Amino acid sequence: MKRTARFLTIFTLIAVLALAALPAFAQDSTTTSHEVTITEEQVNASYRVTNPRRAAVTNVYVDLQPGQVVVSETVTFRGHDPIQTVSVLVPTIANNRLNWSVTSVTHDGQPISDDLLAQINASVATSWVRYIKNHAPAGHVQDIVITDYEVVLTLARPARSANTGS
To answer: Strand (E) positions, 5-159?
Structure first.
């Protein structure tokens, strides 16, 4: 049961990270560089946070903190006591790509093993790359700044060419 609860945490984290990216990809593609701001309030009011994919996951809350995102949630399986999880994610930009690393996960206040943390990070990395490949326009993230109240993404994309001929 504990392994299943941990993997539910992974999928919730991926959904929350994807939510943070959606407003950025909806911007006008003629701009070559611009900032997109996503507030903590917007993230917590988003559909995936208020309606997690898995019925066993409830009480999801995203807490923005300087340089990191903390996701708290309750996982409850039928016939078992609820498990409180807290996951800490830190963004990095490498090769013009935004990556997320899960630096810690606790279940009912107990840290998970390093081996399981490595598995979670491998899953987050794979899912994040797949999400970006399927949903993002051409371009890249130049910078990300997380404060107590917001995430500010600086995006760069190729400008549309005025010459559409060959």
So the answer is: 33-39, 57-65, 68-75, 83-94, 97-107, 110-111, 140-146, 150-156
In three-state secondary structure terms, 95 is: coil
Helix%, strand%, coil% for the chain, nearest 5: 35, 40, 30
Assess contact for 99 and 92: CB atoms under 8 A: yes
Q: Rounded to 10 degrees, what is the CA torsion of 20, 23, 29, 35?
A: -70
Rg (C-alpha) for the chain, rounded Å, is 17
Task: Enumerate residues 6+ apart whose C-beta is below 8 A from 158.
Answer: 32, 138, 139
pLDDT tier for residue 35 given thresholds of 50, 70 and 90: confident
| Token representation of residue 26 | 């909806």
pLDDT single digits (tens) 67-93? 999 999 999 988 899 999 999 999 988
For residues 13 and 101, give the distance between their C-alpha atoms in angstroms, rounded to a whole number. Answer: 11
Length of the chain: 166
Does the reported pTM lie above 0.85? no
Helix crossing, 114-135 with 2-25: angle to 10°? Answer: 30
CA 159, CA 37: separation in Å to the nearest integer?
21
